[in-house]
Amino acid sequence: MRTRAVLTEEDVTKVADAAAAHARANEWNVTIAIVDDGGHLLFLRRLDGAPPISAEMAPGKARTAALGRRESRLYEEAIRQGRTAFLSAPLTAMLEGGVPIVVNGDVIGAVGVSGVKSDQDAEIARAGIAALGIE
């Protein structure tokens, strides 16, 4: 039998706090969402000044990254390159800003961020994941 890592409540808190600290340090008003490997919401924080729609977009980006087992930006890139069939996929936020949390090759969850430029959203998500100290 094979065992694999899972996100604990402590992990989620570390990721959320690090992501929020990175966003605040840059004065970026965003929403941060963290999901488990099945895309189920574990955490949602809308920082002061974050646009209301970001509270819908961040969980969608996280879910896309978790279920797709890859960064959500890859779907956006594929669609821009003409793979419009992805628009029919059962994912709601195929935009940059969703980053999977990978441990020993297994996706154990994802972080989704929304509220600033897409590359900045992804930067915040990566800063949160870095708090776990995984490679």
TrEMBL record:
Pfam families: HbpS-like (PF03928)
Protein name in UniProt: Uncharacterized conserved protein GlcG, DUF336 family
Signal peptide extent: none
InterPro entries, sorted: GlcG_carb_metab_protein, PduO/GlcC-like, PduO/GlcC-like_sf
Top-level division of the source organism's lineage: Bacteria
